[in-house]
Structures are given as structure tokens and as C-alpha cells.
Amino acid sequence: MSIDPSTYGWGTPSDAAQAEAQFDAEWDAAVGRYAGIVGIEGFQGLTLEHPTTGAKLLPHQGMAGTFSEWRRIQASYDRERLIFGYLYDMSRRILNRHQTANYLTRTRQPDRAITLLQDARPEERNAPLNAASMAYAYLSMMRPADAVSWAEKGVACDAPSRRAECLLADGLHMTGRMDEAHTIYSRLMATRSKAADPQTDVVRAMFADLFSQATGALPSPVFAIMVGEGTADPDQASAFWRMGELEFHDSPYFRMHYAYAITKSDPVWALAKLAALAQERPQIKEATLNALSLLKQLDPAGSGGMADLRRELEKRAAANRWTTDGMTRIEIGAEPRS
């Protein structure tokens, strides 16, 4: 059993003009997302100029080396990580502690973000912006109870940020406090700018207005999962999950539920997503156990070319004495169950 990423639309166009246009579009989207997640003003209007003439340059023209590296990367969220690294190098000297922590969490380094924030003085560590960044990192570590504790400090001010409220709601939802979470979701939903124009791409418009980290009223991966799972149209559901994968790739919770959503229709691709998460975040029990379960269902005899992965997952599960008690379990052709 093997997985060809190009089958699933990963990678970049071989045509040079198409690749340049896609890079420029992904650059613009990443700039807006970087500004929203890191919390830095002014990046949305960022332009590139020729160092000698001052002429404005398109992103692929101004960053030839980065563009060349970008073309070799398969996954959209790894391409974003490359661009985020470039933006971080440009702005790192003006970032404060919580902004740097947000960058680290977004680029899938939440353990480093927590260490950075813990090194602050107590009064700085407990300030609302730093506390919200701590909550963000703990959610990315799949430690929602810790996230709730910090998010409550993040909203303990006269004008809490929308982002801090989202983090609190997500932590509450993941710890079973649904009513409290949905009260916050409903309040934030009411602030959305407008209903989607029926003449536009409905899914894309909804993401821009509701879920976008840069412009959305409710940039919550947990609420996005509920919308994705409730989308009946297969094409719209597929588009929704793919957009969500890029918007919320820093959320293991979202990534797992995306895999669960496609288990019935494409279990091989679901396995690829779970295995990637289990290898990237070995401390997340649910990703490891469900990847192992799906692998055994797809290849009961263990002869399909993933023997090393199977041994790695089995060894980890045994070493940690992990069981499936209290977690979502998946089976091919069946709805996920607890």
C-alpha cells in the first residue's frame, strides 16, 4: 500500500506561469494570516520593491530563492510554513514575547511557545495577551483543560480579543462544557460582517467572513468541524475541509476530525493524514491509536509496505500503555464513535 500525494491535489503546478500565480496568491493569503495570528499591524499592505530601482515586485519576482523552494513542497500548510518563516525573519526584531509564541505555535512548535511564555515574569506571563498565547499553545498540544485555565485569564480584561474568546470557547467545548462554549460561539457569530452573496463561491465566502484567521468573526477550528460534519453536499464538504486544513493545520483536533470525515470515502488518505500527525506529535494518543487501527484495517497481514510505521506505532502505544478508553475511535465504513 502506497500513497501518491499528487493524486490528492498536493504539490504545485509544473507550468511556470501557473506556479508563479499560485505562489503570489499563497503569499498574499499567508501575509494576512500571519498578521492575524501573530498579532502584528501593517503586514496586510506589505509590498516588495526592487533594491535598486524601487519598482514594485510581485512576490515570485522578489523572492526567487523562496519561490524555488516553495515549488518543491507538497502540502499547502508546509508551503505556508516556509512563507511564515520568511515573514518572521522580516519582523522578529519588533515582535514581543506573545507574538513570537503565536508564530511558534502556528508553525507547529507549541512546546517551544510554552517554554518561551513560561520564562516571562509572573505578571507578564499572566497578562491577557500572553495568557491567550499560552492557551493557543496548549490547545495545539491537545491539553484543553490547561488551555481553558489560561484562556480565562486572556479574556479577563475590559475588551478581550475575539481570538481569546475563540480559544476559551474551543477549550470549553473540548472539555465537555458545551453550553458555555456555544454561548460564546453564538455571540461571535452575531458579529459577522454579512451573509454570503449567493452569486459567489459559498464555501470560500463563508471562510472569509467566518473562519479566516485574518478576517473571520469566528476563527475556531472546533466550530469549523461542526460545520464541516454538517455539510451535506459532497463537493462543498470537500472544499470546506480542504480550506480548513490550511486554515487550522496548527490544530491537531481539526486534523484528526478531517481524517475521520474522509475515512468512509477514502481510508487510505485518512491514514496518511493520521500517520503524519502521529509522527509529528507522538504525544497525542488519539492520533497514534487511530492511525494504528486504520493501518491494521487496511493491511491486516502487515505486508503492504508500511511495516516500519506499524512497528513504530505499536511500540509507542505499548510503551505508554495507551488504550482507546474515552477517545474517538474510527472504523472503515462506520461513523466515528467514542
What does this molecule look like?
- By secondary structure, this protein is mainly alpha-helical.
- Among the domains are: 8-95, no CATH class; 263-338, no CATH class.
- It is built from 18 helices and 2 strands.
- The protein has helices at residues 16-39, 59-62, 64-70, 76-91, 97-106, 110-118, 122-125, 128-140, 144-154, 162-174, 178-189, 202-211, 221-229, 234-247, 252-262, 267-280, 285-298, 307-320; strands at 48-49, 56-57.
- The longest helix is centred in the N-terminal third of the chain and has 24 residues, at 16-39.
- The radius of gyration is 20 Å and the shape is globular.
List the secondary-structure elements in sequence, H or E: HEEHHHHHHHHHHHHHHHHH
Q: Approximately how much helix is present in the residues?
A: 55-70%
Q: What structural category do the secondary elements indicate?
A: mainly alpha
Estimated share of beta-strand residues: under 5%
Order of strands, main sheet, comes to: 1-2
Radius of gyration, rounded? 20 Å
Helix tally?
A: 18
Instruction: Indicate the overall shape.
Output: globular
| Low-pLDDT windows of residues | 4-8
Count of strand segments: 2
**Terminal Cα separation, in Å?**
28 Å
Mean model confidence by pLDDT: 89
For the sheet with most strands, the description reads: 2 strands, antiparallel
